[in-house]
Amino acid sequence: MDNFKKSRFIVELPVMADTETGLALYHTMTEAFLIIDAQQWSALSSPALVPPDAETIDILRAQGFLLDPAVDENTVFECWKQEQVHDFDTITSKVNVTRKCNNRCTYCILDYEPKEMTAATCMAMDGFYIDFIKEKRPLKARDDYLGGEPLLNTKILLASVGRRSAHCRKQGVNYGFTITSNGRLLEPGIVSELKKSGLTGIRVSLAGPKDVHDRLRPSAAGKGTYAEIMKNLTAVSKLAPIIIECQYDSGSDDYKRMDEIFEDFRTYDIDISEIHFTPILRKKGESLFNCGLGDPKIALALTKLSAKYGYAQAPQAPGYLCRADFKSMFVFDTDGSIIPCTGFQEGEMAYGNVFTGIDFIAESQLLKRNLPDQCQNHCPLLPICMGGCRHQALVYKEDFSGTDCQYDSIKLFLDDYIRTRASEIMEPESQPASEIAA
User: Fold this and answer.
1) CA gap 284, 137 in Å, rounded
2) I need a labelling partner for 422 at 20 to 30 A (CA). Which of 158, 174, 376, 411 fits?
């Protein structure tokens, strides 16, 4: 019993296996998943109980659930983290082609800036990005074009995706991009044009049924936008996958009416590929929306509701990682600045520029995190969040290198994922027993 110890990165959850109580184990770093007899697992920590057989212990070791006593898991985590930070198999970027917007959403975390990317800046940006792809030789490149409203600068958008797509095709790099739009300028012609360069999806933001959406996401002229968006989505829904980003105020009861949106999708005959629910986050400075993520049970309930309407997503473990922590993820701003977060104003906290390259000293300072002892040495969810959203850490604690702990929310969704996966494994028609230790 002294030649191993349990990993600190394990989440345990009781599950019923026939008439016996099993225990589902999920390793948050390796993503290993295993169902074991609860008594056997307890016996590993209690000399009074009969320990598991040698074969079971070997499986637990192989999956990372059991470790040699001398293993320092802080060192293991740091090595694993650096592998993630410097993983260039997939390179991604978010591109602010404009900061102009034809909406004035009441909860926008950015102050309005009438700025847009020029042709010269776009050319330099694409050159920087393509050089990075040549150097790192990724398998995939995935970009998201946003703003403001990106379709207010379609000329630059089309030029950029055309250059990137052409290069990736020549180099054998799998390329695809999305646009994040408020939906008001969507029309079949521009979508068809974008598809030629690898458009994989259109992300459209909604904030609830018509009256709620129109109140929270009015046009620049103060008028409602919901009916216009529904009309446009109908026109383009057969041309490209549509992903709905549904934002809701966790401090109100508006979320209880989300089923009205699903009914409208049916009424308007709109094909929806995915639906995601995001609480309205607090902005820096004075904000009308200070509830943030709120009760995580709301988001889970909305996800379950969408599944009943046929919008179920493949089960996956939750994550709350910040893209500012990864060297393979860029945010290109309208002026050519390379900034750590899309939630910043133009050039804010830039650590480089497409004309001059990366400022490695500034980048190194951004990569550090000030993790408290509970996170660094005790939390089993650390590999899933690594400190969480830096933007919200800045909003609440004025520390971009600080933490935004969302333990309760992550744990709620992780438990649901574990239960779902366990039930699939324990179904009679599920995969054979040899695949249970996945």
Assistant:
1) 38
2) 376
Q: Of the residues 287, 304, 332, which one is the last residue of a structural domain?
A: 332
Q: What are phi and psi of 168, to 5 degrees?
A: -65, -35
Residue ending a domain, choose from 283, 301, 332: 332
pLDDT digit string (tens) for 80-104? 999 999 999 999 999 999 999 999 9
Residue 47 is predicted with a pLDDT of 78
Are 155 and 98 spatial neighbours (Cβ–Cβ below 8 Å)? no
d(CA 398, CA 338): 21
Contact 105, 225 (CB under 8 A): no
Q: Which of 163, 159, 151, 150 is nearest to 119 (CA)?
A: 159
Q: How many CB atoms lie within 10 A of CB 59?
A: 17
Question: The whole model's pTM is what?
Answer: 0.92
**pLDDT interval class at 20 (50, 70, 90):** low
Report the half-sphere exposure of 429 (CA within 13 A, side-chain side): 0
pLDDT of 435 reads: 37
- Alpha helix (H) residue ranges in 292-438: 296-308, 360-367, 373, 382-385, 390-397, 407-426
